[in-house]
Amino acid sequence: MSKLRTLFRYFTTPKKFHSRQRIEKIQRQGMKRQVKFVRKNSPFYAKHWEGLSDDEWAKFPLIDKSIMMDNLADLLTTRLDMNQARELADRAEQNRDFSPKIGPYSIGYSSGTSGSRGMHFLSEKEQASWAGFMLSRGLDGSIFARYKIGLILRANSNTFESVGSSRIKFNFYDLMKPLDELHD
User: Fold this and answer.
1) 54, exposed or middle or buried, with CB in 10 Å at 0-12, 13-18, 19+?
2) pLDDT tens-digit profile of 163-178?
3) CA–CA separation, 104 vs 102, rounded Å?
4) Other CB atoms closer than 10 Å to residue 11's CB: what's the count?
5) Is residue 101 classed exposed, middle or buried when 0-12, 13-18 and 19+ CB atoms within 10 A define those classes?
6) Residue 105 pairs with which residues in a beta bridge?
């Protein structure tokens, strides 16, 4: 993972917003970039958004989780073997080792709190960017200070692990383990 990308995102992420207008401007700019990328790279959305221009993104038809899961391979902006992805995610759920990837992609299941599990796919670039954003918004001080971060979750991810460094100690605590095994 690119520490440079993480640092870039850390230093370019606003720590505070001084107005609602500023937040909305950043959101509009981000949506324009995202829509252009997704329309170009996702066969599902290229078809789903037919007849609407990129500027009309607020009018795009919504989808639900069942539509998402039924069309997952075409919804993604990269081509991945869905059987291989599901096997990797299933194995991780069973053996609690969430580090394996397919190429640069970390893959896993959502928690399924809605009644059906979704899947998540993140590239190493996306993980580095996410880490920079989370550190920027979450740290109460300089990124160069020392921190200890603990996440207590149902499943770990390379994405969560990406926040760790020589100065930032990251610990994952697995909710699927007995309570007496959760602490060091």
Assistant:
1) middle
2) 778 888 888 888 877 8
3) 6
4) 10
5) middle
6) 102, 123
For the chain, what is the mean pLDDT?
87
Residue 116 scores a pLDDT above 60? yes
Query: pLDDT of 38-78, one tens digit each?
Result: 999 999 999 999 999 999 999 999 999 889 989 999 999 99
How far is the C-alpha of 46 from the C-alpha of 106, rounded, in Å?
24
Transcribe the chain into DSSP letters. Answer: --HHHHHHHHHHS-S--S-HHHHHHHHHHHHHHHHHHHHHH-HHHHHHTTT--GGGGGGSPP--HHHHHHTHHHHSSS---HHHHHHHHHHHHHH-----EETTEEEEE---TTSS--EEEEEHHHHHHHHHHHHHHH-SS-TTS-EEEEEEESS--HHHHTT--SSEEEEEEETTS-GGGS--
Q: Taking the domains of the chain in order of start, what are their residue ranges?
A: 3-135
- Residues 140, 109 contacting (CB under 8 angstroms): no
Q: How far apart are CA 161 and CA 151, in angstroms?
A: 10
Percent of the chain having pLDDT more than 90? 43
**pLDDT value at 128 more than 70:** yes
Look at the alpha carbons of 129, 119, 171, 154 in this order and tell me if their dihedral is positive or negative: positive
- What pTM, to 2 d.p., does this model score? 0.77
